[in-house]
């Protein structure tokens, strides 16, 4: 899988004229990578992700998945939103299987596939429950299982843990890393949470304020992320200081680990 965004521009018509939200966006994600795009609220992160998902049409530029231009939504891209977007009248099992149903997958096969991904996210025992019976973290696990069940080439995540409390959010971050490692899913996630981006990703694209542009691409090299204290490590804080400096237009010197390169 190869995602490529080339010279992406996005403008919206407003009462005051054209508003440029994204300008000259160039990025890529390779198969099996976990990449984050981080930026302040209003910098166009969600618009970028919606464009990649095919939900918004770019004003200019190209988005390619394995060399095929994105012109609309497709099952090669799974999407997880900040809001849980579960159908309240459907059971957990039915929610996870819904995308497969739309694809015309036979009932027995879609139930088997949905059951597998419910096991992956640790919610098999809640297969018959309704969304209202679940906590926020559990609802987001269902949303992730639903996206994975269609076996997309890339999973797109729009601040999926933004609505969760701090403790649940940290638990979900660990959970997502486990899912990424066990399923080898390619993930592109946007967030305004700098620590979250550093903790989860292998690479970070730092976006400027509106209009959103790529200020810098950072390679993240951290020791074992299973250590709950990793966010207190000196190297973690160095990365955080660097990203914060970029976001606030600071003049902090660039920090690099050995062999690390930066561009943008």
TrEMBL record:
ABC transporter domain residues: 3-234
Gene3D superfamilies assigned to the protein according to its UniProt record, in alphabetical order: P-loop containing nucleotide triphosphate hydrolases
Subcellular location: Cell inner membrane
Keywords assigned by UniProt, alphabetized: ATP-binding, Nucleotide-binding, Transport
Coiled coil ranges: none
Pfam families noted in UniProt: ABC_tran
Molecular-function GO terms, alphabetical: ATP binding
Topology in the lipid bilayer: Peripheral membrane protein
Cross-referenced InterPro entries: AAA+_ATPase (IPR003593), ABC_transporter-like_ATP-bd (IPR003439), ABC_transporter-like_CS (IPR017871), ABC_transporter_ATP-bind (IPR050166), P-loop_NTPase (IPR027417)
Family recorded in the similarity comment: Belongs to the ABC transporter superfamily. Nitrate/nitrite/cyanate uptake transporter (NitT) (TC 3.A.1.16) family.
Protein name as annotated: ABC transporter ATP-binding protein
């Amino acid at each position: 899988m190869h995602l490529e965004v080339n010279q992406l521009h996005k403008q919206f018509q407003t009462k005051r004229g054209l508003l440029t939200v994204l300008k000259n966006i160039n990025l890529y994600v390779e198969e099996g990578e976990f990449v984050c795009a981080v930026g302040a609220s209003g910098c166009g992160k969600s618009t970028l992700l919606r464009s990649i998902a095919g939900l918004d049409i770019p004003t200019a530029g190209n988005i390619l998945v394995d060399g095929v231009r994105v012109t609309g939504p497709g099952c090669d891209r799974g999407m997880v939103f900040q809001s849980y977007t579960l159908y309240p009248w459907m059971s957990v099992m039915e929610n996870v299987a819904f995308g497969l149903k739309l694809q015309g997958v036979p009932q027995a096969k879609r139930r088997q596939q949905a059951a597998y991904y419910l096991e992956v996210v640790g919610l098999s025992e809640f297969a018959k429950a309704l969304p209202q019976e679940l906590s926020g973290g559990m609802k987001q696990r269902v949303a992730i299982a639903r996206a994975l069940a269609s076996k997309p080439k890339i999973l797109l995540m729009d601040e999926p843990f933004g609505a969760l409390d701090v403790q649940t959010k940290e638990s979900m971050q660990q959970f997502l890393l486990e899912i990424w490692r066990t399923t080898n899913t390619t993930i592109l996630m946007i967030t305004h949470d700098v620590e979250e981006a550093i903790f989860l990703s292998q690479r970070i694209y730092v976006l400027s304020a509106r209009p959103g542009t790529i200020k810098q691409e950072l390679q993240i090299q951290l020791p074992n992320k299973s250590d709950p204290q990793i966010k207190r490590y000196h190297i973690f804080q160095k990365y955080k200081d660097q990203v914060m400096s970029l976001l606030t237009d600071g003049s902090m010197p660039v920090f690099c680990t050995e062999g690390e390169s930066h561009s943008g």
